[in-house]
Amino acid sequence: MTKLGTYLSSIRRKHNLSLRELAKQSELCDVPISHSTLWAIEKGKNSRGNVPHPNPNQLKTISTIYHVNYEKLMELAGYAPVPQNVRVHPTPDGAKVTADVGFELAKQSIPVYGTIHAGEPTFADQYIIGETPITDKIIDDYGKENLFALQVKGDSMSRAVLPGYVAVFSKDANIENGDIVAVLIDGDEAAIKRFRKTSRAVMFEPDSFNPIYQPIIFARDQDQDYRILGKFIYATSMPI
After folding, report:
1. Per-residue model confidence as pLDDT tens digits over 163-196
2. Residues catalogued as catalytic
3. What does pTM read for this prediction?
4. Which residues contact 169 (CB under 8 A, 6 or more apart)?
5. Virtual torsion, Cα 216, 219, 175, 96, nearest 10 deg
6. Chain centroid, CA 231 distance in Å
7. Which residue has the higher pLDDT, 84 or 22?
8. Are 22 and 14 in contact (CB under 8 A)?
């Protein structure tokens, strides 16, 4: 059984529905789903023994009936978010980037790290806590060998990335003012901050709804005890 099948099976049992009852309810939606298709999605295999790939419209129907998050179903089904219509908005001290998010079926995945140790960053198996799907487009744009993912801890970047989400980064990407980066600071674990650079200092700023967080500032004449590991590409709520 797939992650999607396991999740849908548990939700259906909580609603005390049979697959036939669910198929009947789907007839009220724009895209109804047959009993046999629902069975295949839950079991993670169709009549030919292949893993089914429900399309976005079918998942929309299921999310409507169960009142569950559509994006979560998309990600469990193997779709990954893809930034679209990227927009750059100049600000007095840099730039803010916004984008719409579409979904594309992902055929590959990359590791998600809970911790990256200090010094020479260690991307080792013992720090891997899961995987997140990656689309061919992201791999083509950045190169799979350059991609890594971190689970976000805390709420210091909650305006941009929610706690618990998985953030995907590229190691080999040009860093500009206003970009979000993964950075090692003062020999600590990897942190996620917004990068700023002026003639006098380099700053790693929080971007949070919580006002308690303050920027970390390195004056130009100060020891630069930091290392930028990668540029933020997008975040996903994909369970790990």
Report:
1. 888 899 999 888 999 899 999 887 677 889 999 9
2. 156, 193
3. 0.61
4. 147, 148, 149, 150, 181, 182, 229, 230, 231, 232, 233
5. 60
6. 14
7. 22
8. no
